[in-house]
Amino acid sequence: MSVTPIQAPEEVATPRARVLTVFDPLLMLAAFGLVACSLVTLKGATRNVMHGQPLYYVERQAVYAAIGLFIALVLMRVDYSRLREYKFAMYGLIIALNIVVFGAPAVRGSHRWIPLPFFQVQSSEFGKALLIASLAAFAVDRARRLHERRTTARIMLLALIPAMIVIPQPDLGTGLVYVAIAFTMLVFAGTSWKQLTALAALFVIAVTLVLAVAPALGVHVLKPYQVQRLTGFLNPSHDPRNQTYNITQSLIAIGSGGKTGRGVAHATQTTLHFLPENQTDFIFAVVGETYGFVGAAIVLSLYALLIWRALRILTMAKNLYGTLIAGGILAMIMFQVFVNVGMTIGIMPITGVPLPLMSYGGSSVLVTFIALGLLQSIHVQARVSSAGKGRALIS
Amino acid sequence: MIQLPEDRRPTLTPQLALRVAVLGSFALAMFAIIFFRLWFLQVLSGDKYLAQARVNRLRDIAVPAPRGDIVDRSGALLVDSKQAIAVQISPPDLPRTIAGKRHLYARLAKILQISTRPGRCVVEGVGVRRLAQIPCLVAQQLAKVPYQDVTIKTDVPSDVLYYLSENQSRFPGVQVQQVWLRRYPLHDLAAQLFGTVGPITPQEVKDPKYRGVSQQAIVGQSGLEWYYDRYLRGEDGVDRVQVNALGKFTGYLSESQPIRGHTLKLSVDLGLQKAGQQALAQAIQSNPPAPAGAFVAMNPTDGEVYAMGSYPTFDPNIFTKPVPESVYQRLNNASSGYPLFNRAIQSAYPTGSTFKGITSTAALQSGVWSLGDTYDDTGVYSNGPGDVRHNAGHASYGVLNIVNAIQVSSDDFFYNLGRLMNNASPKGGALQQWARAFGIGRKSGIDLGGENAGILPSPLWRTGRDKIEANCERKHHVKPAQLFTGIYSCGIADGRPWSVGDNENLAVGQGDLEATPLQLGVAYSALENGGTVIRPHVGLEVDAPDGTLLQKIDPPPARHIHINPTYLDAIRTGLHLAASTPTGTSGDVFAGWNQARYPVYGKTGTAQHLNQADQSWYVCFVPDPVRPILVVVTVEQGGFGAQAAAPAAREILSQWFMGKRGQFIAGASKTL
User: Which of B20, B30, B50 sits opposite A315 (nearest CB)?
Assistant: First the structure.
């Protein structure tokens, strides 16, 4: 690890000149590696999708990544602490965006996208970044009362409101990401183990209610297909015509990849579209089929690198706000990686969660880069803040 | 807070460190689980899944979309689609052995009641073979597009369908498919306009016009079905299903619903079309040996075709099933009179005296004749000792100006104009120039396809024909000195150079001139509307299936020609006198017609053919301010214009303005 020389206070005030030397290169390396894996995988999987345009998806994904990188570079130079002032605006924006989206035309029965001239904004994705920055700010405001049960309840409630708006879009996966973000923030905010355990228990009870008790009483909180997808992974070979069919095909794809993969030309599960959504939600299965265990291991290693660096940045943050933002980002990435990969290998339920940086999609790529930009900002700020300042401690 | 000199970061509190460790361990555990699971799936069970992936097969089942309806201008149904069951053979799934195939074909022929007797079977690229009907169809399809399903029989009864479905194992490679068939509830009404539909051809598959159309699709092959195929065809749906290695259905992957084609609304008026076809048939039947004819009724200002018919005609319903070769032959030979042919746009003939309207315009506009000039028609017209001509019946009309010449249709008068306008330069003189401007010798651009451009004779055209004849004779070893001497004639041209006689013939619509009834209608439309050469069209609107307008079909006119209004007035006066006065050529045909309310401007024509009875022509228009109409009728071998064509035209006008056909009143005028 490089050691930064002691800096004079006036240099601290103008950190821009040194930003490039104090960002985290390994975090960036992991991100670039994943984008590269994404482009290579998309190139093989989508070459026949758009007639006459074999690079349609690759080109677009590359442009999204380039724009995302630019945003990350800008964020890196900004002190994330200033975001605290905008907590109400950011939180309001989450709610507004996700309500506005219901007015937008439905795409395949879903209200998830707000159409703009060049780009369709997936409001729930941007909600993730906004929720992390605002929720952390609300938590910091109550820094001295973090033990209180009311604080815990308030933070969870602040995450549940947008989650409840997002789930009927329908976007169950993102709703769960919001909950995971809030829970992880509480973990790093210092909420007592007792309260955290209680929350986990509540969650289990809620899931049981939604999946088992409520339908029995005739109340359908989730759409029937959502329930089937959530429970189907428990018995995938049961009914190949229904939703669990996706899991079966995903398992065949990954399994048939073997140690080194079947190659782009022979990956029949992908090219013949047995795999549903193979450029978005099931892209990990494409990696598994095309490049085998080796390819899957490379991708997973890059995520491990990303998560390790995020954890490290969390511990370095100069203040509680930085710690909580890093915690929220960590929750977002870990949840998405484990749920998405777990889904494709049949150990997790099917929820439409994109694999960060791998899945095709502008909103997801941009939001992930925004998150990485915030992590870099926390890193930079930690490095440039002088020895004496330190970070706000958890009392 | 303690600061370590080598690390400027603030230290972790034990509590945070613990929680970071917990989260880190959780991540590590998750990665471990994922890696073990991947190892299990990919390395330990890889072969099992690879085997499953290999038997995973897809089949796309096309769900054909119904073609859009075709309706008349008031929305009355002319053509629609009905659902039917088709029995098909999928060649790759047939039994492998020859004996197996033969047994299958025999079983299938029995339940479909198809003959198993071997017959003549023409296979593209292979030649003629003797095969029974089913193997013949399979062989023909394989020669065209391999691996495509072969339709054996369409519109099979449902008990056959049930039998096949219940005994599927006995009929490997045989499948039943829902198809849409065209239905023509009015049978032979406007039969030649609609054209036919058929399986997309290999050439069409490559054509960008048919991008996104499946290889099994049925598309328009001629007529309106071809011209407006883009709107009519709709979009086929696809059921993509998963099948195992034995071809057994194991699951749905996706499905897309077929989208019905748009409705094509025609400018055709059902009542007028009916009346026109009946009037034409009557004109033909009452003038033996007339075998055939055609008519067009259209709006002379915007080109909307109100009715168009050709006789003999046919019932297009026969084409909804695979047509046996014998039936097709019957529809395509001289003894049946080529009923598939749309004579209104595909047959070009000399037009006889109806051409005089064009000759008059050319003569006046080019200045070779003026309104005050007169010609003394003595009944004899001479180009010298070898070429002496007479009016029909040796009539002599005395001193004529151009208006009277049109009224009585004096040939001598117009021979004289032809002589005055003769020009030996390759493109000819004023007559050719004006005839071309009126659209003679070029396609009108009507939305039907297969149109005949006809021939506008000129010195250039004649030398071209001579060249073709000379080449042909040379191929048969005729020496240069003996070319055109008749030692060996190809019958294309006689080597005679362009002469004044050619131009005189053209001036009265005879000689080498060939024009379609529609071209004549377009030319007279310009006389009616003051110089706009309209682009005739049968399509009026593209509508959604529920009738809402999607697109108006209103092609712009082909061009405008400037004609001096004074000259137009004179020509129109001549045409009106011809149709309304006792001395006019069609005056008696319109006896009792309300000329004050619906003034008729009409010109008879009688075209002479070698070794054949004369062809009867009539063109007329009524410039009604609300419902203007122009009618052209021709009857092959029907005799004089006033005798067959003009009475039919009157019936069409009567239907248009009075709502009933009225009587067939044959005229007595014996002018050419």
Answer: B20
CA distance A76 to A322: 13
Predicted confidence (pLDDT) at residue A19 exceeds the cutoff of 70: no
pLDDT of residue B11: 55
Q: DSSP string covering B21-38, please? A: HHHHHHHHHHHHHHHHHH
Least confident range of B63-72, B251-260, B474-483, B523-532: B251-260
Q: Which positions in chain B touch A262 (Cβ < 8 Å)? A: 50
pLDDT at residue A84 in the model: 93
Structure confidence at residue B139 (pLDDT): 84
Note the pTM of the prediction, 2 decimals: 0.62
Interface of B with A in 36-95 (CB under 8 A): 37-39, 41-43, 45-50, 52-54, 56, 58
pLDDT bucket at B280, cuts 50 / 70 / 90: very high
In this structure, the strands spanning B263-266 and B612-622 are unpaired
Tell me, letter by letter, the H, E, C secondary structure of B86-111: EEEECHHHCCCCHHHHHHHHHHHHHH
Residue, of A243 and A33, whose pLDDT is higher:
A33
CA distances from A328 to A184, A281, B30 (A): 6, 22, 18
What does the alpha-carbon distance between residue A171 and residue A192 come to, in Å, rounded to a whole number? 31
A9 pLDDT higher than 60: no
Alpha carbons A24 and A43: distance in angstroms, whole number: 29
Percentage of residues in chain B having pLDDT higher than 90: 55
More confident residue, B493 or A227: B493
CB A161 within 8 A of CB A95: yes
**A255 with B54: Cβ contact below 8 A:** no
Residue B246 burial (10 A CB sphere; 0-12, 13-18, 19+): exposed
Which B residues 220-249 touch A at CB under 8 Å? 240, 242
Is the per-residue pLDDT at A224 higher than 90?
A: no
Q: Which helix (H) or strand (E) holds B141?
A: helix B133-144
Nearest-angstrom CA–CA distance, A59 and A57: 5
Q: Which residues contact B441 (CB under 8 A, 6 or more apart)?
A: B435, B453, B454, B455, B456, B515
Query: Taking the CA of residue A45 as centre, how many other CA atoms within 13 Å lie in the half-sphere pointing to its CB?
Result: 33
CA distance A294 to A282: 18
What per-residue confidence (pLDDT) applies to B493?
Answer: 82
DSSP alpha helices (H): ranges in chain A? 9-13, 19-22, 25-45, 56-76, 87-100, 123-141, 149-166, 172-189, 193-208, 214-216, 224-232, 245-257, 263-266, 268-271, 283-316, 320-344, 362-384
d(CA A213, CA A208): 7
Distance in Å, alpha carbon of A155 to nearest chain B alpha carbon: 19
Q: How far is B18 from chain A (nearest CA, A)?
A: 10
Asked if ipTM goes beyond 0.95, one says no
Nearest-CA distance from B5 to chain A in Å?
A: 9
Between CA B466 and CA B471, with CA B470 as vertex, the angle to 5 degrees is: 120
Q: Is the bond preceding B288 in cis, omega lying within 30 degrees of 0?
A: no
Minimum mean pLDDT among A327-331, B165-169, B229-233: which range? B165-169
* Token output for B12: 């972790």
Distance separating alpha carbons of residues B122 and B226, to the nearest angstrom: 26
Nearest to B355 by CA among B400, B411, B426, B272: B411
* Cβ-Cβ contacts under 8 Å, B250 against chain A: 240
What is the per-residue pLDDT across A142-188, written as a single tens digit (0 to 9) for each? 888 888 889 999 999 999 999 999 988 888 889 999 999 999 999 99
Cα–Cα dist A297/A294, whole Å: 5
B147 lies within 8 A of chain A by CB: no
Per the document, the length of chain A is 395
Task: Measure B255 CA to nearest chain A CA, in Å.
Answer: 13
Asked if the Cβ–Cβ distance from A297 to B23 is below 8 Å, we say no
- Confidence at residue A213, expressed as pLDDT on a 0 to 100 scale: 76
